[in-house]
């Protein structure tokens, strides 16, 4: 039913002192900004801190900030919290500073490791003290094979640590949805039979770092994925908004398990500035705006569609979530998960 109380008249930004936003699927898809994202975030930044949290390990915080400024957003490298930064902090608790680390990934990961005082190698023959793996479009078989060679011995039998920046299965691109770091981590896992330790979302350290860096007491996190963004924010005790401009769609929202249910459901980032309708429960019916949904046994019934598809989705999601039951136990009308929302 959501972790945070909200009033009927307030916007999702009411009382928020920092907006922490994911990038891929929320701000941009590929190089280009998503509709309404930049102007909505610039407006939000008028009276609160704006920070960026990304699992994408392929670029440095400097390059990310530069890209964001080109799109028209206020951004300095210190405003960008990356999964490579989280990975390096985690690595520092596992191996001595100055150790040689085998890197599978791009410049963003290499840069953070070198700033952390580690020596970078691409070869298992250099006897690395650990493997750190992150996404880069250039990662191919040769890098994955080097990781597999280095990780052949299980850690509990004297093998070296393996840290993944993140395990996102997919990444939004301008041309559509592409494989993410999770698919590459899975390839190594299949070869060596080991599991990586994950540093980025949905793990808590990357959120804790952002809250501390921006000295935030009431942050709001924006994401497009339930399994990483929203789950991670909930684990960290941060209010969250799922925006339907990236990976997860209305069907996924209706099926969200308890730990991955967002505080807010937004069609796009313009909704940050609009009053968020109250979720009203009465006589077994959930009403959001003028949309009303009820559960009758295994049937999800639309009592009133209302004027807004997003309000109908919100009402349906809360009606299903309130039961604590899994989605496959229901008969759900297709109208409830219609998807007119923008996506890459």
Overall number of strands: 19
Structural class: alpha/beta
Spatial strand order of the main sheet: 5-4-1-13-14-15
CATH topology of the largest domain: Rossmann fold
Protein model, in words:
Residues 1-8 have low confidence and may be disordered. This protein has 3 domains: 18-55 and 202-273, HAD superfamily/HAD-like (Rossmann fold, 3-Layer(aba) Sandwich); 84-198, HAD superfamily/HAD-like (Rossmann fold), CATH 3.40.50.1000; 279-337, no CATH class. The strands form 5 sheets. It has a 6-stranded parallel β-sheet. Strands 7-6-8-9-12 form a 5-stranded parallel β-sheet, with helices on both faces. Strands 16-17-18-19 form a 4-stranded antiparallel β-sheet, covered by helices on one side. It has helices at residues 37-44, 61-71, 83-92, 107-115, 141-150, 181-192, 205-213, 226-235, 250-254, 309-323; strands at 18-21, 28-29, 32-33, 49-54, 80-82, 100-104, 119-121, 130-133, 162-164, 170-173, 176-179, 197-198, 219-223, 239-243, 264-266, 279-282, 285-288, 291-296, 299-304. With 344 residues, the chain is of the alpha/beta class.
What's a concise summary of this model?
With 344 residues, this protein is of the alpha/beta class. It is built from ten helices and 19 strands. Helix 5 packs across helix 6.
């Amino acid at each position: 039913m959501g972790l945070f109380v909200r009033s009927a008249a307030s916007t999702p930004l009411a009382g928020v002192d920092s907006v922490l936003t994911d990038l891929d699927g929320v701000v941009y898809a590929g190089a280009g900004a998503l509709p309404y994202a930049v102007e909505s975030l610039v407006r939000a930044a008028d009276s609160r801190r704006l920070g960026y949290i990304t699992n994408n390990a392929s670029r440095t915080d400097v390059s990310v900030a530069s890209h964001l400024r080109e799109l028209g957003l206020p951004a300095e490298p210190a405003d960008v919290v990356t999964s490579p930064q989280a990975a390096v902090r985690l690595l520092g608790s596992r191996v001595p500073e100055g150790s040689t680390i085998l890197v599978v990934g791009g410049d963003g990961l290499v840069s953070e490791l070198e700033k952390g005082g580690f020596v970078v190698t691409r070869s298992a023959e250099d006897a690395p003290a650990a493997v750190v793996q992150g996404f880069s479009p250039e990662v191919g078989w040769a890098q994955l094979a080097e990781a597999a060679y280095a990780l052949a011995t299980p850690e509990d039998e004297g093998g070296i640590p393996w840290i993944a920046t993140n395990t996102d299965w997919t990444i939004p691109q301008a041309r559509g949805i592409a494989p993410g770091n999770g698919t590459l981590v899975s390839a190594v896992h299949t070869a060596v039979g080991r599991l990586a330790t994950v540093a980025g979302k949905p793990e808590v350290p990357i959120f804790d770092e952002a809250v501390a860096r921006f000295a935030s007491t009431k942050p709001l996190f924006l994401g497009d994925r339930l399994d990483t963004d929203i789950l991670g924010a909930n684990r960290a005790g941060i209010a969250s908004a799922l925006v339907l401009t990236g990976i997860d769609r209305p069907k996924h929202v209706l099926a969200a398990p308890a730990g991955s249910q967002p505080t807010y459901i937004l069609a796009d980032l313009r909704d940050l500035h609009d009053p968020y309708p109250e979720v009203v429960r009465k006589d077994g019916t959930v009403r959001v705006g003028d949309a009303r949904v009820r559960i009758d046994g295994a049937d999800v019934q639309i009592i009133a569609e209302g004027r807004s598809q997003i309000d109908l989705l919100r009402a349906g999601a809360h009606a299903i979530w309130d039961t604590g039951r899994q989605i496959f136990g229901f008969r759900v009308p297709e109208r409830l998960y219609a998807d007119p929302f923008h996506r890459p």
